[in-house]
Design brief:
Radius of gyration: 20 Å
Distance between the termini: 41 Å
Strand content: 15-25%
Strand order of the largest sheet: 7-1-2-6-3-5-4-8-9-10
Order of helices and strands: HEEHEHHEHEHEHEEEHEEHEEHEH
Largest sheet: 10 strands, mixed
Structural class: alpha/beta
Shape: globular
Bound molecules: threonylcarbamoyladenylate, magnesium ion
Mean pLDDT: 94
Low-confidence stretches: none
Helix content: 25-40%
Number of helices: 11
Length: 322
């Protein structure tokens, strides 16, 4: 997007937000469904558009770090350190919320999730809007997150006032949510920023949700394609595909290396490199959902770095389709 187009897009997005409308906005992780966080009708529209249960809290997106204390209080020193190191970027901080934060945003939680995205379009909109913007992933509840404007158009159709097309999201997987509302920081959702990167600032490798209060939805099936997803060990993919085909199923096998497959199975090449896999995964699943496969078969990548978030999403998607 050139300078002039960016300027026009930012102006239009701010206008729609000010009027209480919904804008699908590209971020570096996934497309967000943006609305003015302080406009309760606009926030209600977000829940309605996504068919999202009201108890599922939303992330408030900010344009600058100075806004942090308008939403959170008792902010620990580590939160500032993480913010300084990783914002703007794929990190969401879970902090104690100020009592005046509207209940509808946080679904009854005592915490608030905050993030400054690094995508130039999202950041420019937030800086121009100068106030908090809620932006859950711009998909229907429980479905795959969108990493292209086209995914939003297909999924939410006329429920969005404007889809701002900023091309593909570069990271391709949602932000990492770090819970700093309790004594020991932990990861509430693995995402686009690795635990190893966080450890460099925290001084220890944060664990997964040991202290995190379970939020509605966190244990449920999420991030799922429509087609059934089955996981198998890499060495079992061929035999698993053969068995499924023998049952009369049409199978897509997602794997970096080509393999010998029966006639009713199709090999779909996915990147081995983790950042590239994160960048492509949702788009591949969106694409395969449009084709008539009965089963998508794949294995989990290595679980370090971005692999932790990828494993999380694949396991949830597989559970959802059991
Ligand atoms: O990368 C992202 O984080 C994207 C982009 C658009 O910014 N947004 C996103 O939002 O993934 P959403 O709503 O699809 O997922 C946010 C997750 C939900 O699982 C929600 O339960 C959790 O964050 N969450 C939000 N506020 C919370 C809170 N106060 N306490 C605990 N969990 C919270
Ligand atoms: Mg989501």
């Amino acid at each position: 997007m050139d300078e002039k187009a960016l300027h026009g897009a930012v102006e239009k997005a701010v206008e729609v937000l000010k009027q209480g409308g919904l804008v699908a906005l590209p971020t570096e992780t996934v497309y967000g469904l943006a609305a003015d966080a302080l406009n309760s009708e606009a926030v209600a529209k977000v829940f309605a558009a996504k068919a999202r249960p009201h108890k599922h809290p939303l992330i408030v997106h900010l344009g600058s770090m100075e806004e942090l204390s308008q939403w959170a209080h008792n902010i620990p020193e580590l939160a500032w350190k993480l913010a300084k190191q990783f914002w703007p970027g794929p990190l969401t901080l879970l902090l104690q919320r100020r009592p005046e934060v509207p209940e509808a945003i946080v679904g009854g939680q005592k915490t608030i999730a905050l993030r400054i995205p690094s995508h130039p379009v999202a950041l420019a909109v937030l800086k121009a809007f100068k106030s908090g913007v809620v932006a859950p992933s711009a998909n229907s509840f429980g479905h795959l997150s969108p990493t292209l404007a086209e995914h939003v158009r297909q999924g939410l159709k006329e429920k969005v006032d404007w889809v701002l097309d900023g091309g593909p999201c570069c990271i391709g997987i949602e932000s990492t949510i770090v819970d700093l509302s309790r004594e020991r920081p932990s990861i509430a959702r693995p995402g686009g920023l690795s635990a190893e990167a966080l450890a460099q600032v925290l001084g220890f490798l944060p664990e997964r949700g040991i202290n995190a209060q379970p939020v509605p939805g966190s244990a449920h099936a999420h991030y799922a394609p429509q087609t059934r997803l089955v996981l198998a060990k890499p060495e079992a993919l061929e035999s698993c595909a053969t068995q499924l085909c023998a049952e009369g199923k049409r199978v897509a096998v997602l794997h970096p290396q080509k393999m010998a497959l029966p006639e009713n199975a199709q090999w779909v090449c996915i990147p081995e490199d983790l950042p590239q896999l994160a960048h492509r995964l949702y788009a591949v699943l969106h694409e395969l959902d449009k084709q008539r496969f009965d089963v998508l078969l794949t294995s989990l990548p290595q679980a370090d770095g971005l692999g932790s978030a990828l494993c999380d999403r694949l396991v949830r998607a597989a559970n959802a389709s059991l």
